[in-house]
Design brief:
The complex is a heterodimer of chains A (177) and B (103). Chain A has 177 residues and is α+β, with helices and mostly antiparallel strands. Chain A has a single domain, classed as Heat Shock Protein 90. Chain A is built from 6 helices and 5 strands. A 5-stranded antiparallel sheet of chain A has the order 1-2-3-5-4, with helices on both faces. In chain A, helix 2 packs antiparallel against helix 3 and helix 5 packs antiparallel against helix 6. Chain A is globular. The N and C termini of chain A lie far apart (33 Å). Chain B is an alpha/beta fold. Chain B has one domain. Helix content of chain B is 47%, strand content 28%. Chain B is built from 3 helices and 4 strands; from the N terminus they run E-H-E-H-E-H-E. Chain B has a 4-stranded parallel sheet, covered by helices on one side. In chain B, helix 2 links the parallel strand 2 and strand 3. In chain B, helix 1 runs parallel beside helix 2. Chain B starts with a strand and ends with a strand. Classes of the chains: A alpha+beta (177), B alpha/beta (103).
Chain lengths: 177, 103
């Protein structure tokens, strides 16, 4: 294993926290606590720290809900999560996971549609979704996660979808706080 | 209620609170005050809280005395914004109070 290359790549991209592997409920909480502790030690406002944490939670819980809805094995349900800083001092929160290509394409479209909305329109869409009757079939997802992330992100959410040899795709999303 | 709430299945967790609130309003006749010091809520918890506020709003419309006080750390305006968005849909007494927390 070439840990030095890994380390240098993290340093160069200013990645403060990174995880790759099967993501359980308790792991989401543990990594979340580590993230919070880290942010508390930074000169970051409590509001921004909470936004970073919130986006991290919505992303990882979305991945868990999706993997469950597709009956993925533990191996398929792995997530790749990174929290980094950009040169302007913004936090970049990214998460990626395996998806069926059709789902991935749909998701990219949804995210790109959100990018066209301004703050007022996003708020309206969020409140509309909040008021929609709960889908009893849906495990938990209130359909609010993407809208919530889009509202918290200072730049439009950046989606990416790459086809894999297996026929599935790797979907990832980046929010800027 | 106080603290963070971000379970994967918020509905499961909040059903008890929602049921209790409905039962209390149906069976008792005195007023109901909700004291909140909530911090972070994931979106499914937000939806569950909205259900609770809707129940309170309905009771208020029916003439019941209901009141919410939501205290938050003055340094974290994000919590105040969250509370404000709930308040927008409520006509009962809904106070959002900044508290100075010593670090």
């Amino acid at each position: 294993m070439d840990l030095l290359t890994l380390r240098e790549s993290y340093l160069q991209q200013q990645i403060m926290l990174c995880f790759n592997g099967p993501i359980s409920r308790s792991l989401i909480e543990e990594i979340g606590n580590a993230l919070r502790n880290y942010l508390n030690g930074q000169p970051t406002s409590p509001s921004s720290a909470m936004d970073v944490f919130a986006v991290y939670i919505e992303m990882t819980q979305n991945i868990r809900h999706y993997a469950r809805s597709r009956d993925y094995t533990e191996e398929q349900a792995t997530a790749t999560i990174a929290v980094a800083r950009d040169d302007a001092g913004h936090y970049l929160v990214s998460a990626g996971n395996l998806v069926e290509m059709d789902d991935g394409r749909r998701l990219v479209e949804v995210v790109n549609d959100l990018a066209r909305l301004d703050a007022g329109e996003l708020k309206r869409a969020y409140k509309q979704q909040l008021r929609r009757p709960r889908d009893e079939q849906a495990a938990s997802g209130a359909g609010l996660g993407l809208l919530d992330m889009a509202r918290k992100s200072t730049r439009p959410l950046e989606p990416a979808l790459q086809a894999l040899p297996s026929g599935q795709g790797f979907f990832s999303l980046t929010a800027t706080i | 209620m106080q603290g963070d709430s971000y379970p994967e299945n918020s509905y499961e967790l909040f059903t008890q609170v929602i049921d209790w609130t409905e039962r209390f309003l149906a069976e008792a006749s005195h007023s109901l005050a909700l004291d909140l010091e909530l911090l972070y809520l994931n979106t499914s918890s937000v939806k569950a809280m909205m259900d609770i506020f809707d129940i309170l709003e309905e009771a208020h419309q029916a003439g019941r005395q209901v009141r919410v006080v939501w205290r938050y750390d003055e340094r974290n305006e994000r919590i105040a914004e969250l509370a404000e968005e709930f308040k927008e849909d409520c006509t009962f007494d809904f106070a959002i109070t900044a508290v100075r927390v010593s670090a």
